[in-house]
Design brief:
single chain; alpha/beta; DHBP synthase; Rossmann fold; 2 domains; 12 helices; globular; binds adenosine monophosphate; binds magnesium ion
Length: 358
């Protein structure tokens, strides 16, 4: 059964206090508010209102064993949410907060366990977005917020993505235009002896290693090459970011001979075309001509010289696959360096591991 959803437009740089107060009142009364962050749109509820947190899972159709990230506006809040906070956490927080880094710590007893899906840990970050910060402040509560999409769909980077997925399911959607990074936060587990990357994100893992002067363990599931089995970051087990149509990712060990690589991607597309399938190609500005000359539809995700641009556009392009006049999509791949690791994690999952190596 649908409810009435109000959509309000705000200035992302200087949000109107009255509008944000209204949104905070919805949170305080146990409602759900979709709000912008610098990564993607979030679906928020007060962490202390269990019924509201439960509704986040219902509305998204998110499995209850996939924990949420808690958003705070002030570092001091961290000590109310977590215990045994290691020095490493403070080092990272000092450097990256507010910003797209989530840290996993031991959960404090007073935090309702539903937020963490019963795990003894808690994932926390402080978002660098004026709207998100003000909303948390006026709500007078940390806000639990996963991405504001239906589970399994690409995360929302534009208000229209949110409307597609959640209109009629939430009380309020705050429209502040397109988000800045377009991919989610980097998630680092700091509860063990060694830091572990649970999810690559908007901050390259190499940068975080430099701040810590320590190597971060990168499990296979963080690369997105396999589904996770363990309970540490349950989110990694589920279907993610996926368009409804088939997506095939064409990977290579080497992208330096770009024209050669594009010709191999083209060959994959040609084979599919022989089967009377209408193929679209997720391409880059450098390579799109190769495919267009042969009559293929391209969805340009950005330039290879700017991985931020590719990360920024990726989820939107994944949603376009379902709207374009094609039967399936073939995507180029990227070297797993810097943001390339984040992009490959999302692409591989979006393809449900439908990967061809050339
Ligand atoms: P989303 O908010 O939809 O971007 O997903 C949040 C991500 O953070 C998922 O991959 C979760 O598995 C992960 N996460 C949240 N809380 C925890 C936690 N306590 N321990 C490990 N991973 C977590
Ligand atoms: Mg998500």
């Amino acid at each position: 059964m649908d409810i009435q959803t109000k959509i309000v437009k705000v200035n992302p740089f200087d949000p109107d206090n009255e509008l944000i107060r209204e949104a905070a009142n919805v949170i305080r009364r146990g409602g759900l508010v979709v709000f912008p962050t610098e990564t993607v749109y979030g679906l928020g509820a007060s962490i202390y209102i269990e019924r509201a947190v439960h509704r986040i899972f219902e509305v998204k159709k998110r499995p209850l064993d996939n924990p949420l990230i808690v958003h705070i506006d002030n570092v001091d809040e961290l000590e109310k949410l977590a215990e045994d906070i290691p020095d490493k956490a403070y080092k990272l927080v000092k450097k990256y907060w507010p910003g797209p880094l989530t840290i996993v710590l031991r959960r404090a007893k007073n935090v309702p366990s539903i937020v963490s899906s019963g795990l003894p840990t808690i994932a926390v970050r402080s978002p660098a977005h004026p709207v998100a910060m003000k909303l948390i402040k006026y709500s007078e509560s940390p806000i639990a917020a996963p991405s504001a999409n239906l589970a399994g769909k690409p995360s929302p980077t534009k208000p229209e993505h949110v409307v597609e997925d959640l209109y009629g399911k939430v009380e309020l959607i705050i429209d502040a235009g397109e988000t800045l990074y377009g991919v989610e936060s980097t998630v680092i587990d700091l509860t063990g002896r060694k830091p572990v990357l649970l999810r690559p994100g908007a901050i390259p893992v190499e940068d975080i290693e430099a701040v810590l002067s320590e190597e971060i363990e990168i499990p296979e599931y963080a690369r997105g090459v396999s589904e996770g089995r363990i309970a540490l970051s349950p989110g990694i087990r589920y279907r993610h970011y996926a368009p409804d149509k088939e997506l095939i990712v064409v990977e290579s060990a080497d992208y330096s001979e770009l024209n050669n690589y594009a010709l191999k991607v083209l060959a994959v597309a040609m084979e599919l075309k022989k089967k009377k399938l209408k193929v679209g190609i997720i391409a880059t500005r450098e390579t799109k001509k190769v495919y267009e000359e042969k009559g293929f539809i391209t969805l340009v995700v950005g330039s290879r010289s700017n991985l931020y641009e590719i990360a920024h556009n990726l989820f939107s392009v994944l949603r376009e696959i379902d709207k374009a006049d094609i039967d399936l999509a073939v995507s180029e791949a990227f070297e797993e360096k810097g943001l390339g690791l984040t992009i490959m994690n999302r692409l591989r999952k979006a393809s449900r591991f439908n990967i061809i190596k050339v």
